[in-house]
Write a structure and sequence with these properties.
This protein has 470 residues and is of the alpha/beta class. It is built from 16 helices and 16 strands. It folds into two domains: 4-229 and 444-455, Rossmann fold (3-Layer(aba) Sandwich); 232-439, Glycogen Phosphorylase B (Rossmann fold). The strands form two sheets. The protein has a ten-stranded mixed β-sheet, sandwiched between helices. Strands 13-12-11-14-15-16 form a six-stranded parallel β-sheet, with helices on both faces.
């Protein structure tokens, strides 16, 4: 097997002793690199007065990582600017808050060029290069300019927006053209892949080959849907460790005589947290006889605090959780516990296992691994119920969840009532189907499908042939 080089904005491999990151990207990429030799390259998370391109190479959790520092201007324009104020809201259909600033775009191009120049000396003939997410879309173009002829794949962890949404981006055509310097483009779902194909066919004058590849800008690229999963075996082991058992016991004690509804999300406007709180408020209003039987725990670690939109959502959620508790709480019970704190993955596993309902209602999501972790954490003999947004990528796989429109407080309230009243036989039947998918379409299946598709492409710079990707 050829060496694998993984490239992502942040490099954060787990230590193997329980990880504090709620997101699934670090776990998934580390699992890939344990299987294939190679390295993980990206930003160190540190800034320096002047960019030097100096690398720091070390072993973390059994993974070789190569890290580079960025300048403050890079952080402001590339990361806080173009990535988080322009592309993130746009890809999540929030065109109303997307910021378009020429300096952001310039910083984005500059950092992708710097990353490529720093990585170039580490690349050996035959290496497979796997680049991740919206931060690094132009990186293949920069590597090609430096003479790299290796096979390069790209995987987008967030949704690709509909054609009419994406064209709101200034220089959208140039961004898509840069994607044709990849050999393989991977998306979370067939819907996201089709949205990209529609743009290429209608806006860029492209065409589709008989094999399903796309031709445009004088080049050919293969596309595929590769739904990411969790490391199901690793998660099963987490459930058995002391921290997970202790957290489950703690949550069971805290919710005695009550049923726990749990949500775990990074504090972000795409996660539908306000809409979720409103749905829970409606449930409490419409079901006074069930109020004291339920406790909602929302864990929402703070992120991107320097971005104004994130400051605003935190203020709104603080006010909304206070309003709900003020209206419905009693001396011995409050309906909402809202926590802005990170927890280790094994601790989260214990929390999921104690919950009767998992409430996962993003407005848009590439996949959402919290939904899959909730399923994996359930007791097979007495499982909880997953309520899942139909706009999460996971909804295409986890069809036996209760699927809801996260914008509708009525649908969330109705789903909560149904989940809390659901008979054990139905809960077991639904969970069994969900768990079968989580096990079968896990991170190993995702990794192997993408890497094998990329490896099957002949590395020909002039005409890179498409892979047979599903």
């Amino acid at each position: 097997m050829n060496r694998l080089i993984v490239v992502s904005n942040r490099v954060n491999p787990p230590t193997g002793e329980g990880d504090e990151s709620v997101g699934g990207l670090a776990m998934a990429l580390a699992a890939a690199l344990r299987e294939y030799s190679g390295l993980w390259f990206g930003w160190s998370g540190r800034t320096t007065p002047e960019f030097t391109g100096q690398l720091s190479v070390e072993k973390v959790g059994g993974v070789t990582v190569a890290l580079v520092d960025l300048e403050e201007a890079d952080l402001d324009e590339y990361y806080n600017g173009y990535a988080n104020k322009t592309l993130w809201p746009l890809f999540h259909y929030r065109t109303d808050i997307a910021a378009y600033d020429r300096a952001y775009g310039q910083g984005y191009e500059r950092v992708n060029r710097r990353f490529a120049e720093t990585l170039r000396p580490l690349i050996e003939p035959g290496d497979l290069i796997w680049i991740h997410d919206y931060h690094l879309i132009p990186m293949a173009r920069e590597l090609r300019r430096l003479g790299v002829k290796n096979r390069i794949g790209f995987f987008l962890h967030v949704p690709w927006p509909a054609h009419q949404v994406f064209v709101n981006l200034p220089r959208h055509r140039q961004l898509v053209e840069a994607m044709f310097d990849y050999d393989l483009l991977g998306f979370q779902t067939a819907e996201h892949r089709q949205a990209f194909e529609e743009y290429v066919l209608t806006e860029a004058g492209g065409e589709q080959t008989p094999s399903g590849a796309l031709k445009a800008f004088g080049r050919t690229v293969a596309t595929g849907a590769f739904p990411i999963g969790i490391d199901a075996q690793d998660f099963a082991q987490l459930l058995r460790n002391a921290r997970a058992r202790r957290m489950r016991d703690l949550m069971t004690a805290c919710t005695v005589f009550r049923r726990l509804v749990v949500g775990v999300d990074r504090l972000d406007y795409s996660k539908g947290l306000e809409e979720r709180f409103l749905g829970f408020e409606r449930f409490l209003t419409e079901n006074p006889d069930m109020r004291r039987e339920v406790l909602m725990l929302q864990i929402a670690p703070v992120s991107r605090e320097s971005v104004e939109a994130y400051q605003q959502i935190r203020e709104r959620l603080d006010a909304l959780s206070g309003r709900i508790n003020g209206a419905f709480a009693d001396v011995d019970w409050a309906p909402v516990r809202y926590v802005n704190k990170n927890y280790r993955r094994d601790e989260l596993a214990g929390i999921y296992g104690a919950a009767r309902v998992g409430l996962v209602t993003p407005l848009r999501d590439g996949m959402n691994l919290v939904a899959k972790e909730f399923v994996a954490a359930q007791n097979p003999d007495d499982p909880g119920v997953l309520i899942l947004s139909r706009f999460a990528g996971a909804a295409r796989q986890l069809k036996d969840a209760l699927l809801v429109n996260p914008n509708s407080a009525e649908e969330i309230a109705d789903a909560l009532k149904r989940a809390l009243a659901m008979e054990k036989a139905e809960r077991v039947r639904r969970w069994s189907a969900l768990f079968d998918n989580v096990q079968r379409e896990d991170v190993t299946a995702w990794r192997d499908a993408f890497v094998q598709a990329l490896a099957s492409i002949e590395a020909d710079v002039e005409e890179r042939r498409p892979a047979l990707a599903s």
